[in-house]
Amino acid sequence: MKIKKQSIGFQFILWTLLVCIVPFIVGGLYIEKVITRQVHENFEYYTYEVLNKIHNKINDGSIKPVYEAISLLAMDDRTAEVMKVVGERQIKNPEMIDPKIYQFVANYSGVFPRMMLLGLGTEQGGYLEYPGFFTEPGYDPRSRMWYQEAMNHKGTAYLTDPYAMKTTGEIVVAFSRTVQYENKTLGVVVAGWNVEELGKRIEEFKIGTNGYVILLSQNNKIIACSKHNEWLMKTPIEIGVPALIDLADDGQIYHVNIDGKRQLVSVNRSPISGWKAIAVIDESELAEKVSQIMTPIFITYIVMLFLILGSIFWITKKYVIEPISELTEGVAALSNGDLEFRVPSGRKNEFGILAIAFNEMADKLKSNFKKIQQQNEMILLNTIRQKEIEKQIARLDRLNIIGEMAAGIAHEVRNPMTTVRGFLQMLFKKEHNSPHASFYNIMIEELDRANGIITEFLSLAKNKAVNLEYANLNQVIEAIVPLIEADARISNKSIVLELSEIPDLWIDEKEIRQVILNMVRNGLEAMNEKGEVRVRTYCEENTVVMAIADQGSGIKIEILENIGIPFQTTKENGTGLGLPVCYSIAARHNAKISVKTGDDGTEFYVKFEMNQDN
Predict the structure, then answer these.
(1) C-alpha to C-alpha distance for 602 and 560, rounded to whole angstroms
(2) Per the UniProt record, which residue ranges are transmembrane (predicted)?
(3) Which of 185, 239, 317, 367 has the fewest Cβ atoms within 10 angstroms?
(4) Are strands 158-159 and 171-181 parallel, antiparallel or unpaired?
(5) pTM of the entire predicted model
(6) CA 413, CA 320: separation in Å to the nearest integer?
(7) Which residue pairs, CB below 8 angstroms and at least 24 apart, start in 574-580?
(8) Alpha-carbon torsion, ordered 538, 541, 542, 548, to 10 deg
(9) Where are the beta strands (DSSP E) in 382-481?
(10) E strands, 114-248, where?
(11) Coil, helix or strand for 205?
């Protein structure tokens, strides 16, 4: 018998790495997701507050005062008198009007110093502007937007879109309102406000390190931008960012490409002016903040991971792998005929007891072998046939002793498995909030199931009591799906379930899991990549049937004749106990197993009687 040394240790180390690293990776990704969401929420709250402050500063510091000033001017009876005096004239200089009228206009202009100009346009086409006394041949205020919008909104002040002044080229917004007197409209008063003032006020507010603010008018013209002055008086469509027009939800974070980069933007609309303040920040800036937070967390994660893995590897090597390696070496030596080999027995634990038992069995084997040699020598003196018979007896006796020894080793393997189970429970407690914490339970259950398999190996040929409970076969299959799907994905294969409605049965769930795992894994091993194992349940006459089918090449006739017999296997590393255990479990459940095979695959049918006796 050829034994692979360190096979258990290799598998244990491999699975320990997977069990430790996968939760750490998943946990790290989850933490990064939570922190990223928190950073974005903080940015959302921060920009909302900044944009609110911008609107408040503009509204309280400029728009509201100008609204109030222009409204007071429009409702002042003296303004009506000025309108009548101006008539259809264009006032070119202060000498053309009474000093009292001039002083009246100058006083109102001083109410709000930030106003660039104060104008009065009459219904007859006359115009008075302070302080510049602007004149232009053929100029008619009635054709101007501020005049027409005021006429469309009689009785209320109106804020116009920004426009460039013909005299200075400066970009201004206008506040205008009609002048009513004795139910007649005499004209419109207008106040101009330099847009550059807005830009200076916006620059006081910072959005992150490199962020900036864009201010859009009610007609989506860019009034101010602290970073791109060349965008002024243009629309988002003209600068190649039409998405800015569709921003509607205040405080909502949007992803927009600006200047060829992916940017995060947030919008806030003023209910007074209808202007939209848009905060813009490079998405990489928030990613950098997330990275700054995550770096110390990942360093701590890595240090903890190495400490845990190092401790597990050291303990496993010293207390599990080394004793198993010594016992494995002893079994290989005895199998090769070295009856003098003895296992070190200095350990004061279960492995030490097992080593003593191994050495005692080796002593008995040596003693019995000597006796057999003596008997063979005596038989050789008689006839050749007697010699051959004695050789067969010696071979059988040797196999029986090795079988007894193997049974003892299998019995003692439970102890290191208990250590493994303890470490998995410890990891589960540490990672109980992980979205993959359920896999710890699955692995612990698998260790328990492996312990059950050892018991089945020791008592395969004996009658064994089963722990029957009233349960549904579909629930047992669904509970074990994550495990068998994991096995399938490793080899690029798939599992398909076709579970019909079936009645509950008296079954031992652990033993039925054993049957499902053995048959599904046999099916997976019988197929090439992209193969499919199909698990079905249905009722047939008075039985509940569980059918497990693969897409392999079928079972050969000579193997099919001996199927279910212990130690009959076609696998290089197989034990030949998988299907015999299934047949044994089926017998204890009063169930029957049948098989159908061909070139297109093999299907096993496990049939349970519906009317069962306990």
Answers:
(1) 11
(2) 12-31, 293-315
(3) 367
(4) antiparallel
(5) 0.45
(6) 10
(7) 577/456, 577/457, 577/460, 578/518, 578/521, 578/522, 579/518, 579/522, 580/460
(8) -30
(9) 469-471
(10) 115-122, 127-130, 158-159, 163-164, 171-181, 184-194, 212-216, 222-225
(11) coil
341-354 tens-digit pLDDT: 777 877 777 777 77
pLDDT score recorded for residue 465: 63
Domain boundaries, the chain: 355-464, 465-609
Q: For tokens 């903080």, name the residue.
A: 42
**CA-CA-CA-CA torsion sign (185, 191, 195, 198):** negative
Using DSSP's 3-state secondary structure scheme, residue 233 falls into: coil
The architecture of the domain spanning 465-609 is 2-Layer Sandwich (3.30)
Q: Distance between CA 286 and CA 342 in Å, rounded?
A: 66
Neighbour tally for 456: CB within 10 Å? 18
- Measured CA distances, 134 to 53, 117, 176, 258 (Å): 36, 10, 17, 40
Distance of alpha carbon 326 from alpha carbon 346, whole angstroms: 12
Which residues does 384 contact at the CB level (< 8 Å), separation at least 6? none
Contact 385, 408 (CB under 8 A): no
Structure-token pair, residue 251: 């405080």
Residues 126 and 142: beta-carbon distance below 8 Å: no
CA–CA distance, 430 with 305 (Å, rounded to integer): 12
How far is Cα 392 from Cα 404, in angstroms, rounded to an integer?
18
Q: Position 418: which residue type? A: T
Q: What is the pLDDT of residues 136-159, one digit of tens each?
A: 777 888 888 888 888 988 888 888
